[in-house]
Amino acid sequence: MKAVVLAAGQGTRMRPLSESVPKPMLPVADRPLAAHTVDAAVDAGADEIVLVIGYEGETVRNYFGTEYRGIPVSYAVQEEQAGTADAVNAARAHIDGPFAVLNGDNLYDQAAIDQLFDACPAVCAIEVDDPSNYGVLSTAADDPDLVTEIVEKPADPPTNLANAGAYAFPAEAREWLEVPASERGEHEITDVVARVIDEYNVTPVSLERWLDVGRPWELLEANEWKLGELEGRIDGDVSEDARLEGSVVVEAGATIEPGVVIEGPALIREGAEVGPNAYVRGATLIETDAEVGHAVEIKNSVVSRGTSVSHLSYIGDSVLGRNVNIGAGTNVANLRHDDADIWFTVKGERVSTGRRKFGVVAGDEVKTGINTSLTPGLKLEAGATTMSGETVERDR
Ligand code: TTP
């Protein structure tokens, strides 16, 4: 079965991280986010991957090429982001039989994707406390293995089963991809699923674990999940005076200097330099060519390619974009005194991250002056700077 993977989105809720790197290519452990989706499809037995690309699509194309893990990869370009059904429709010329559709920004548990491919027509579902923001699935009263309805974002959800953005469609669904625009002006795949439910017996496949990676803290959560699955391995240059505990991967070409303590899960990528005397706590990703220097503590964070945290700093529960420079003595607060959840600005609106601990999100090329204090839930746009000694309490 071919798998169509949707990776054309702009990732506006992920800004500023998605400004230079399209969301599907943001780092999750040792691969871009979308590679985890493609891997799930390949492991479930997909015989071809069709990637729907759009925003910054060349970056996606350059990564996957024309063959990935021995499976042919082809591309369909979605010119305008007109919705998920429109995205699959862009791939229509590639579809010639039953086909799977997966969101390129979702992490799934593998067993469910295996089952999805076997059970076609099928749709993945996850039980959530409040499904009102999702497509909600109903099943037959006398047969929990038969989907009877899907309703998009209902005010009064009939069940707790949320649509998790993974589908196995019969070949005929290829002809049903041109659906009218919904109230929010998008051509939604939910309408295609509804038609398949009307005409076929569709099986719900329950996911044990699922993550829709849309906002910056979900990128942290994605890394918490996938770094936690890595098996420790030392291929780089590790000083005898460094201490590595738990699952730690040091890739070839990475350097760990004396006095460093790393408590996994942690991944130190090729060309990264850690130490001397740095303390890295899991789940942390130190990307290619990043630098973590003397007396720096990094906890549960993503430090992107080319970023330097050179001296005397604390970074916790944060995502630093590419080529960020953190001045000596910069400290991140990641917890409020009242222990309340940390809020963050997404597309101009304040939303709760649902996390008690969350630090800062810094876009590419941010520079902080020495002794900068950064408050929890702060967003620094790409290229933003802070003065030495500043306490930054508002996004900039
Ligand atoms: P969304 O997360 O709804 O959209 P997005 O990724 O652009 O993010 P944002 O809302 O922050 O701007 O999309 C779900 C999946 O579908 C995701 O994998 C991207 C993909 N997609 C397309 O490929 N084309 C589209 O037109 C849309 C709307 C989504």
Automatic annotation (TrEMBL):
Coiled coil: none
Coiled coil as UniProt keyword: no
InterPro entries, A to Z: Bifunctiontional_GlmU_arc-type, GlmU-like, GMPPB_C, NTP_transferase_dom, Nucleotide-diphossugar_trans, Trimer_LpxA-like_sf
Top-level EC class as recorded in UniProt: transferase
Mannose-1-phosphate guanyltransferase C-terminal domain location: 262-354
Protein family per UniProt: In the N-terminal section; belongs to the N-acetylglucosamine-1-phosphate uridyltransferase family. In the C-terminal section; belongs to the transferase hexapeptide repeat family.
Protein name: Bifunctional protein GlmU
Species of provenance: Natrinema zhouii
High-level lineage: Archaea, Methanobacteriati, Methanobacteriota, Stenosarchaea group, Halobacteria
